[in-house]
Structures are given as C-alpha cells and as structure tokens.
Design brief:
Helix content: 40-55%
Number of strands: 8
Distance between the termini: 74 Å
Strand content: 15-25%
Number of helices: 7
Radius of gyration: 26 Å
Largest sheet: 4 strands, antiparallel
Shape: extended
Strand order of the largest sheet: 1-2-3-4
C-alpha cells in the first residue's frame, strides 16, 4: 500500500502530471468560453428567432433518425444543446416553482419554453414548449432582510413576509423603540408603531405588486 501511495505522490509532483492538469484546465476554459459565447449569441436573437432555434433542437433530439444514429454508435442519445439551453435559462430565464425532489432546476424562457433539469441515475434536461396562454407557477421569493434589536444584536435574517410582519406587529403591540432593519446595506429604523422610516424598493413588495395586478 505504501509503495502505491509513494508512486501516486511522485506522479502528482511530476512535470507530466502538471502538464496534463494544465492542458485540462485550458480545455475547460476553452469550452467555457465557447458556451458563454453561444449563450450571448442566443440572447442577442429576437424572441421568435430564439424560439426557432429551440424548436429545431427539440425536433432534432426527438427524431427517431437521430436516436437510432446515436444508439448505433453504442451510446445513449446525447442532447448537448439542451444543456446549453439550461445554462442560458439559468442566466436569462425565469425561475419556476419546483414541486418534487428529483427536479433540481426549472426555468421559463421567453414565456414559451420550460427547461427542466431532472436527476435520477444521471442528469436529464427536458425542454417543453407550452401553449400560448398556459399559466405557470413561478418561483417568487422575497429578498432577505435582517432585523436587529436595540442593542444591535441580530434578531432574524429572513425573506418570509409573515415572520417580518409579525415582528412589526409585536413592536407595535409592545410599543418598543430601537429596532431596525438592514436591507441591501442600508439601516432603516422601525418606530414604536411598527412602521419603517422608509420602504426601499425590493423590501417585501412582491406581494403588493401582484395584488396591484388584480385590481
């Protein structure tokens, strides 16, 4: 066992190993640049042009001709462009609500396509075109804010609007001074009535924005 460890250690310290690691690093960097370039090129397209590209990808990977060709090569049909679309969606898509444990990411692109990454014995990317008027479940989350006690001790850091509102209600009920909120680096005092001195954009305003759409 000792000789194997020594041999491995010697190899890891060798110029050959260092050269291979450097070549692998350059290879990864090259493919990252290629992927990033493709993502930005996709983003520069119009919505309809982008939709055409995605539809062509779906058509290709769903075709029996492509699948048979891949199986004849002795491998499971690859869908590399779907993984590129997943990277694109992560950067430019809208996050969707995930309802199970096997789905690790889910995005909406241009209101037209759902990109879903599912893990089982490996990762699979599913790309689905939705109906024009189909409703989706977006993953809407508030930004985190921190609430501090009068002695500057952290009370809670939360993005839960109910927790936040309950604290404000307690402050009003008990008529206490000195509590404050820190949000995006800004300190905002809370008066004894549970009212903030100011309400910056992004501080638990998503619910209000959605309600406004219903009025």
């Amino acid at each position: 066992m000792g000789s194997i460890v020594e041999t491995l250690k010697k190899y890891l310290e060798s110029d050959e190993c260092k050269q291979r690691l450097e070549e692998e690093r350059k290879r990864e960097l090259f493919f990252k640049k290629l992927k990033d370039k493709w993502i930005e090129k996709m983003h520069s397209l119009t919505v309809e042009q982008r939709a055409d590209v995605i539809r062509k990808c779906i058509k290709k990977y769903d075709s029996d001709k492509y699948k048979d060709k891949e199986y004849k090569k002795g491998r499971f049909p690859e869908n590399t462009l779907f993984y590129m679309l997943d990277d694109y969606a992560e950067k430019y898509g809208e996050p969707l609500y995930i309802e199970n444990d096997i789905c690790v990411s889910k995005y909406l692109i241009d209101g037209k396509f759902i990109i879903e990454c599912v893990y089982g014995q490996g990762s699979v990317i599913n790309v689905t075109e939705i109906e024009e008027n189909e409703v989706v479940a977006r993953d809407i989350k508030n930004e985190y804010c921190s609430i501090y006690k009068p002695n500057d001790e952290l009370l809670v850091c939360t993005n839960n609007q109910l927790v936040y509102t309950d604290i404000l209600a307690q402050i009003k009920e008990k008529q206490v001074y000195g509590y404050y909120v820190k949000f995006l680096g800004k300190k905002i005092p809370i008066d004894k009535n549970g009212t903030l001195k100011e309400y910056p954009d992004g501080l638990f305003d998503k619910y209000t924005e959605l309600i406004a759409k219903l009025i």
